[in-house]
């Protein structure tokens, strides 16, 4: 019995030793590679340079970590919307990706302190709009980045009309084409953009609000604790020796006063010549001299526990209703336009009808998504001064292009064999299956094409889920919504087409009927 107890104790000790030995920091050193999630569209913090390599302030920080650990650094691109998911899924070991430290985010990831940078929220806009204060944006279309921590506060406090997009490229295009009157985002990157010659017609006239401090981010689990502690010690030493401040100067970053003050604070000593700021004190959030306070965006812990708060629920409901209404309007417009095109093709002089038929053949051969992007992000970019008018809005462009594409396809079906003596109603009845397919495909396309309109279900749900503890559940709900939406519209399309009388007057049908009644 004694031998059995000793053996059991030995096994448990071995298991315990292996568990400790296999924490994330040990695994990284064992495999010799640290996988870091970084931004690739956020110069000068993280971007792809002309040689196709990762470059920037945060890239240099990551490489300094790898050098101190004596491991290679592998970079993996992340976005504001997906960075926490990639971290918690184990795709990356560490995030150095412009992550602001908030109490809400600490509920699902670990924020490493001390912080390595600070920024706030401001907005860039065209000078001709003369936007001088946040109150000037009330009721105005303002571009926001999906997943940004300040989106909800801006919408609530300044009652802006949000246009939520997923990446900086689309946001820049939306601003240049005047889809937005301003782009509210991180002060650091907007100041960098405003200093570029291509943006000389734009300015930042608004004060910077909601300052937030940036953190390295690790998973909030026991396996990542040693890595987090190691990163805290590393960062404290690099702040003390001036490395972080000098690196920020190298990349011409804003907020140098903050980094200089941090450098000074962490070099302060007490009467016994001991450092005032030490990593042992990092749990004391009240000690803002060494560890900057984190930002809270919620009203209570109870609100944090909810899947969706009242604000998110209203925003999502609005986006779903908008998407469904947009789909319904496009379906009705396409149907009416198809009747008009078919009448022009069949009931006008031959030369005119043939011209309409040829044009609809060309129109239906061009993929609608390609035409949408070409028109909105290509051709419309040339009309910046008029891009806020109704006929140049994203909703109007998607509405016209999708309606015209489907109407052209239906006309091609109905107007086949122009020599036939069938009436227009008879032709529609003959092609009801093809017409139904065209309209159902339109319902599918309209839901996704609403991304260039606002608000829309895809980006609103993506924005909400990026800061939620239940992203899979929310995105599954979005998929279910689109599936149910297409089913409902498909049912009504079928119902409308079933009202049409069965065609029995078509010559081919008459011949078959006559043959079946021939005397034997």
UniProtKB/TrEMBL annotation:
Annotated signal sequence range: 1-21
Single GO BP term: amino acid transport
Solute-binding protein family 3/N-terminal domain: residues covered: 33-255
Localization of this protein: Membrane
Matches recorded under InterPro entries: Bact_solute-bind_prot3, MetI-like_sf, SBP_3_CS, Solute-binding_3/MltF_N
Main subcellular location of this protein, as a coarse class: membrane
A cellular component term, taken from the record's GO annotations: extracellular region
Keyword Lipid metabolism: no
Bilayer topology: Multi-pass membrane protein
Membrane-spanning intervals of the chain: 320-344, 356-376, 396-414, 435-458, 470-493
Family as reported in the entry's similarity comment: Belongs to the bacterial solute-binding protein 3 family.
Name this polypeptide is given: Polar amino acid uptake family ABC transporter substrate-binding protein
């Amino acid at each position: 019995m004694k031998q059995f107890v000793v053996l059991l104790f030995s096994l448990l000790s071995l298991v315990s030793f292996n568990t400790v030995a296999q924490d994330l920091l040990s695994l990284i050193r064992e495999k010799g590679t640290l996988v870091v999630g970084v931004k690739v569209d956020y110069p000068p913090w993280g971007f792809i340079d002309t040689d196709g390599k990762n470059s920037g302030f945060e890239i240099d920080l990551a490489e300094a970590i790898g050098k101190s650990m004596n491991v290679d650094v592998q970079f993996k691109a992340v976005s504001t919307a997906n960075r926490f998911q990639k971290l918690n899924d184990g795709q990356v070991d560490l995030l150095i990706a412009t992550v602001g430290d908030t109490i809400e985010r600490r509920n699902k990831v670990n924020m490493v302190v001390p912080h390595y940078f600070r920024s706030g929220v401001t907005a860039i806009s065209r000078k001709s709009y003369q936007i001088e204060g946040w109150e000037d944006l009330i009721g105005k279309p303002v571009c926001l980045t999906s997943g940004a921590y300040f989106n909800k506060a801006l919408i609530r406090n300044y009652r802006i009309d949000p246009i939520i997009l997923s990446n900086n490229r689309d946001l820049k295009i939306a601003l240049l084409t005047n889809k937005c009157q301003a782009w509210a985002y991180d002060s650091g990157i907007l100041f960098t953009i405003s200093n570029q010659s291509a943006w000389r017609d734009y300015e930042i006239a608004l004060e910077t609000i909601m300052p937030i401090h940036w953190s390295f981010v690790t998973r909030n689990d026991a396996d990542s604790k040693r890595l987090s502690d190691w990163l805290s010690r590393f960062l404290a030493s690099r702040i003390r020796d001036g490395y972080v401040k000098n690196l920020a100067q190298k990349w011409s970053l804003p907020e140098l006063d903050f980094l200089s003050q941090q450098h000074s604070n962490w070099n302060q000593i007490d009467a016994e010549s001991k450092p005032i700021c030490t990593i042992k004190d990092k749990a004391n959030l009240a000690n803002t001299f060494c560890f900057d306070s984190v930002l809270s965006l919620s009203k209570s812990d109870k609100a944090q526990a909810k899947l969706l708060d009242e604000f998110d629920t209203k925003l999502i409901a609005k986006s779903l209703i908008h998407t469904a209404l947009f789909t319904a309007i496009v379906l009705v417009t396409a149907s009416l336009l198809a009747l008009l095109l078919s009448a022009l093709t069949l009931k006008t002089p031959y030369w005119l009808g043939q011209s309409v038929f040829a044009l609809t053949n060309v129109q239906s051969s061009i993929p609608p998504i390609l035409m949408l992007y070409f028109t909105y992000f290509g051709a419309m970019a040339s009309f910046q001064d008029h891009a806020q008018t109704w006929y140049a809005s994203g909703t109007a462009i998607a509405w016209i292009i999708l309606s015209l594409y489907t109407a052209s396809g239906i006309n091609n079906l109905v107007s086949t064999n122009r020599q036939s003596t069938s009436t227009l109603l008879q032709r529609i009845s003959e092609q009801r299956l093809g017409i139904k397919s065209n309209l159902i495909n339109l319902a599918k396309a309209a839901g996704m094409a609403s991304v260039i309109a606002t608000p829309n279900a895809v980006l609103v749900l993506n924005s909400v889920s990026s800061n939620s503890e239940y992203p899979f559940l929310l995105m599954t709900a979005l998929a279910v919504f689109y599936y149910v939406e297409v089913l409902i519209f498909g049912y009504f399309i079928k119902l409308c087409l079933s009202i049409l009388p069965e065609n029995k007057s078509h010559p081919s049908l008459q011949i078959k009927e006559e043959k079946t009644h021939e005397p034997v």
